[in-house]
């Protein structure tokens, strides 16, 4: 219990800083016309103009909480943050660049190519500069490990951004993923990943007070890219740590997959929505209303119910990953649970999509 208390204080600090900053950020967003207008794109589904800036609040809440904790040497013992920061600072600084690009895109709508090139450069910089962020899951040489990591981070970064299509959806999924990632980190003794994960959970919770339906502020690309990049980077970091601390086959592979399993729902949405776009001969970067949340609404769920169902799916798949870390001897059948569940959902999803397309 004593080990958890500092993280609770860190989360509370990030939550308060984020929640208290949002009223000011909303006024600033209206003044600067940093606003999401429903008529700006055909796929927009909200009814009224809503300010962006939630991503800025999350960023400020998380970073200011970390800076305050470092300056005060509290709630962690003296030197703990200084020792952990060289590990969590590289992805945080890289995500800051994507946050800045996303904020500019929210304000002035950047073309797709510059956004892609900036994402590529930032992701490549992280995986090339810091070997701990290369995906060592398959014991691949340095270059393939770096390429796999770059692909994973790029896909997940955009997946969280794509999921920001209903009030509270992307931020809520990120909070669940990062909370479970933080628990995994504590179980496996990876303090830097736990610090980064829990401070982000606190910041997201402060934002969700204003973003859960009906939302009064959106986090925009700035928040989606920031959270997606950090969640995917942290999942690789913890996966590699689990490989190093439990290198005994056949237990190492299922256990090291656990942090990646947390992102199953964003991955499923990213893959299926892009397949649908390709099926309709639409470029993948063009937004539409074919995300898993929209498909659930077309099945008859309310928007809030669709969000809660996706939360539940994220929690369910995430708990499987958590059990893999907590009870590694169970891994033979646990590792099959998420792919089996995803396959069953995909078969049902595909059948409903075909019926809706033919009708």
Question: What this model shows, in words?
Answer:
The chain contains 13 helices and 2 strands. It has helices at 5-32, 54-72, 80-108, 112-129, 142-162, 169-188, 191-211, 220-245, 252-261, 264-279, 292-298, 303-326, 331-358, and strands at residues 35-36, 50-51. Helices cover 74% and strands 1% of the residues. It has one domain (5-358). The longest helix has 29 residues, at 80-108. Helix 2 packs across helix 8 (220-245), helix 3 runs parallel beside helix 7 and helix 12 packs antiparallel against helix 13. The radius of gyration is 20 Å and the shape is globular.
- For the termini, the CA-CA separation is 56 Å
- Please state the overall shape, judged from the principal axes of the Cα atoms: globular
Beta-strand content estimate: under 5%
**Overall mean pLDDT:** 88
Structural class of the helices, strands and pairings?
mainly alpha
Helix-strand sequence? HEEHHHHHHHHHHHH
Share of residues in helices = over 70%
Total count of helical runs of at least 4 residues? 13
Poorly predicted regions are none
Count of discrete domains? 1
- How many strands appear in the DSSP assignment? 2
Spatial strand arrangement across the major sheet: 1-2
* Cα-atom radius of gyration: 20 Å
């Amino acid at each position: 219990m004593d080990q958890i208390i500092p993280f609770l204080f860190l989360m509370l600090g990030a939550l308060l800083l984020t929640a208290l900053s949002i009223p000011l950020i909303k006024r600033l967003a209206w003044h600067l016309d940093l606003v999401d207008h429903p008529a700006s794109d055909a796929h927009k589904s909200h009814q009224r103009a809503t300010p962006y800036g939630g991503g800025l609040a999350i960023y400020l809440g998380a970073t200011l909480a970390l800076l305050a904790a470092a300056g005060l040497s509290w709630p962690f013992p003296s030197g703990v943050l200084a020792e952990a920061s060289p590990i969590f600072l590289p992805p945080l600084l890289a995500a800051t660049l994507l946050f800045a690009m996303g904020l500019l895109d929210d304000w002035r709508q950047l073309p797709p190519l510059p956004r892609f090139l900036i994402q590529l450069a930032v992701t490549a910089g992280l995986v090339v500069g810091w070997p701990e962020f290369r995906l060592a899951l398959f014991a691949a040489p340095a270059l393939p490990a770096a390429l796999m990591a770059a692909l994973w981070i790029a896909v997940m970064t955009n997946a969280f951004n794509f999921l920001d299509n209903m009030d509270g959806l992307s931020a809520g999924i990120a909070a669940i993923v990062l909370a479970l990632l933080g628990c995994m980190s504590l179980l496996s003794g990876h303090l830097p990943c736990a610090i980064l994960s829990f401070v982000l959970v606190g910041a997201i919770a402060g934002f969700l007070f204003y973003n859960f339906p009906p939302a009064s502020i959106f986090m925009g690309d700035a928040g989606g890219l920031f959270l997606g990049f950090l969640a995917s980077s942290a999942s690789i970091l913890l996966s590699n740590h689990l490989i190093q601390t439990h290198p005994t086959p056949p237990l190492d592979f299922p256990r090291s997959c656990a942090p990646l399993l947390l992102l199953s729902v964003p991955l499923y949405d990213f893959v299926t929505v892009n397949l649908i776009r390709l099926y309709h001969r639409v470029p993948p970067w063009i937004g539409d209303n074919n995300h898993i949340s929209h498909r659930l609404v077309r099945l008859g769920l309310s928007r809030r119910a669709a969000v809660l169902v996706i939360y539940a799916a994220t929690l369910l798949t995430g708990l499987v990953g958590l059990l893999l870390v907590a009870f590694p001897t169970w891994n033979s059948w646990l590792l099959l649970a998420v792919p089996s569940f995803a396959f069953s959902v995909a078969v049902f999803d595909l059948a409903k999509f075909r019926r809706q397309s033919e009708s």
